[in-house]
């Protein structure tokens, strides 16, 4: 039987949820009211965390996958003593508040991952649980369980319907992530109404087939003891993730309880009044929490602080016995890179052979992995094409499979791009890990929901995207990513790299590693590319640089990736016609945009026409160039060299374009030799 104070606390959460959403006149009261017993039981009896230090390394992680129910999470953070005040609750969904309309990890302490798009949170949680398993296998020693936290998730019907959750949960079962425990809020309501209209599968049978431990609670509205027992039982299952189906009533206590009307709109004043009467609250007061409820949560917070204190004492002993490992843990969680780590990056000269940048990427990753133990990689069933695995890599697998172990740093994601991206977000959020994952660039948009959240959540996640243009050849337009980089370049807080040779590939990974709060998209070629005269890893850090230049150029040719060498060839042909040219490589436009104006004028001198060259869509290049050589249609199936000729992405066409543009601007009165001096 639950104590009276537990009942009081649960009712307080329900009433607060109604008050918060009503004051905002916006939000979702139904799920917080229905899930209050689950959340209260978890936060007061199981969750080990310290509100005074939200970043305690071994804290239990909680993910609200159905992020629209965030009023619930904000209330719990407030009750536990996180930096979420009652005024913050009153400021729900208002501009600049700590309590936005969906949980944002960069806005609110205690939020582990940004959630809202359904299915992302549970998929992130798989990454959080995988991170714990990996770090435990890597650093735990006999008598020193540094990493043994649980990852708890609250999710609903919407999360279970989204495909990304199926991908990720299938992997969680395969990986046997026993410290992942999920609560399925089975309220049988979505926005369209009863789930009978669209979602009638047996969820638990599906998860049992995935290899999960399954259980259920028939009365999640009032049978708190069964919720508690289900968690205890799940904790005992160490070789399977767990899902607990809890039958709840959405909007419990409201006049509209059990209906879709209580999902996404504030309760009316008369409904809130009767709710407060029903639960024994003063109908004339709002945002009320009794001292006994605060005291209950304060005790749990004190317990969490004690857990951290004991962990810190253990870590001090660990430091004495394993100083190297302890130093590495502290460095990794502080987001610091080892001194001189960049010295391992390969460098190239023009005499080195032509190599595809996907192959050069393999070499860079192989060189980096020894210096950066935090670097964990994988591929969506394209390891042999993406070249993302170094030779000595151990696969991340449950030891029972005899295919690897949890200390392994290479992840076999299968044909699951979306799950891979979401799981990488979870790994990054855990701390101490820099994840990368590979697929074809065209399939970045298969998992775009997660990639966008990498940028929104300030995640250092590295997307190794090969087969980056029409240069992939015969696979044809279904695989040729004409429009993809226009999307990534338009996305705030995301870096897009398209290196042109070995030095630029090294510089790309250098830039990706030092940018700790934004993801990097690395677009890599299938075809071999020559090593360029004038390239360097350092140059990539500025986003664009002059590869070669004549005095007083009449035209600037700017290109990326495989087209930089094409621009060089066009430049030589123009020089033979006594036309002065400046060749610019722009591996990352976002980094270039951040440079000072003086530097930008060195790259693109005033009064000099600019022509961009890229075997992708031309959209966006008008920001930098006056004319574009590129794709304005989808690609085609054929040999790469034939495709380049067919779509006029050739040195000859660039020369024609340059001559035409120069003549056009001369007619308008622009003479580069004069205007360049202005």
Summarize the structure.
This protein has 25 helices and 20 strands. The protein is of the alpha/beta class.
Describe this structure in words.
- It is a single chain.
- This protein is an alpha/beta fold and about 675 residues long.
- It has three domains: about 5-305, 3-Layer(aba) Sandwich (Rossmann fold), CATH 3.40.50; about 340-530, Thiamin diphosphate (ThDP)-binding fold, Pyr/PP domains (Rossmann fold); about 540-675, Rossmann fold (3-Layer(aba) Sandwich).
- It contains 25 helices and 20 strands.
- The strands form five sheets. Strands 10-9-11-12-14-13 form a six-stranded parallel β-sheet, with helices on both faces. Strands 1-2-3-7-6 form a five-stranded parallel β-sheet, sandwiched between helices.
- Helix 1 (about 5-25) crosses helix 3 (about 70-80) and helix 11 (about 290-320) crosses helix 12.
Secondary-structure map:
Layout: H1 4-24, H2 30-45, E1 61-64, H3 70-80, H4 86-90, H5 120-139, E2 151-156, H6 157-161, H7 163-175, E3 180-186, E4 189-190, E5 193-194, H8 203-210, E6 213-217, H9 224-236, E7 242-247, H10 269-279, H11 291-321, H12 323-333, E8 355-356, H13 357-371, E9 375-379, H14 383-386, E10 410-412, H15 417-430, E11 434-440, H16 448-456, E12 462-466, H17 484-490, E13 495-497, H18 502-514, E14 520-523, E15 528-529, H19 537-540, E16 545-549, E17 555-559, H20 564-575, E18 581-585, H21 589-593, H22 597-603, E19 610-617, E20 627-631, H23 640-646, H24 651-667, H25 672-675
Parallel strand pairs: 1-2, 2-3, 3-7, 6-7, 9-10, 9-11, 11-12, 12-14, 13-14, 17-18, 17-19, 19-20
Antiparallel strand pairs: 4-5, 8-15, 16-18
Helix pairs in contact: 1-2, 1-3, 1-10, 2-3, 2-9, 5-7, 5-15, 7-15, 11-12, 13-18, 15-16, 20-24
